[in-house]
UniProtKB/TrEMBL annotation:
NCBIfam families: PRK06029.1 (NF004685), ubiX_pad (TIGR00421). Residues 15-183 form the Flavoprotein domain. Its EC number is 2.5.1.129. This is Flavin prenyltransferase UbiX. The gene is ubiX. InterPro entries: Flavin_trans-like (IPR036551), Flavoprotein (IPR003382), UbiX-like (IPR004507).
Amino acid sequence: MDDDVNGAIRNPPARLVVGISGASGAVYGARVLDALNDLGVESHLVVTKAALLTLSQETDLSPDELTAKASVVHKLGDVGATIASGSFRTLGMIVAPCSIKTMSEIATGVTSTLLTRAADVTLKERRPLVLMVRETPFHLGHLRTMTSLAEMGAIIAPPLPALYARPSSIMEMVDQSVGRTLDLFGLDWRAVRRWEGLKS
Ligand SMILES: Cc1cc2nc3c(=O)[nH]c(=O)nc-3n(C[C@H](O)[C@H](O)[C@H](O)COP(=O)(O)O)c2cc1C
C-alpha cells in the first residue's frame, strides 16, 4: 500500500496516529478508532495516563477494550516507537480529546511523552495535526496557545456539537464531530450528516 514496486508512485499510506489525552471526552478517541476501522485505515494509538481516568469515569469501556480497537498500540514512554520518527509515513495525527496540558506541551515542543513527540513530528513534517481541544471556559493563555499552534500549522478542532445535523443522541453528536475532523484528512466516514441546503 505504501509505495509501488518501482518506487515511481509514493502514495501516503492509509495510516493515522491517534492520541487520546485526559480531557473530558474519551469517547471521541474511541469513536475515531471505530471510524478508522470502518474506513480500513491503520491506526497507531497512544494514550495518556489521565485518559485512562476519564475513560473509566465517562464510558463503560475498559482500557483493553479501547486498545483492541487500534491496529497498533504504543506505550506512552516509548520514544523509540515508529511514530516518534518523521521517516515513518502517516496521513497525520489526531488528538481526541486534547487536554490543555497536552496542547501546551505540543505548543512548546517539550515532547516529554510519545504522544507529544508524535505530534511534534507531525508538525515538523507538515502533516495535518488535528487537536480536539476540550476545556471551558478558556483563559487568555489557552487562547494564545491555540493561536500559536494554528500559526505552526495545527488545526484546532474543539468537539462542539453541530446542531444543524439534528442529533438525537450523544453518540450522534460525537460521531458528527469525529466525522468532520476525519474530513480534514480526506477521510469520508459514513456517520457524517452533510448539509444539503435549506429545506423548503
Ligand atoms: C474526569 C476528568 C475530566 C477532565 N476534563 C478535562 C478537560 O475537559 N480539559 C482538560 O484540559 N483537562 C481535563 N482534566 C484534567 C486533565 O486530565 C489533567 O490536566 C491531566 O494532567 C492531563 O494530562 P494529559 O494531557 O497527559 O492527559 C480532566 C480530568 C478528569 C479526571
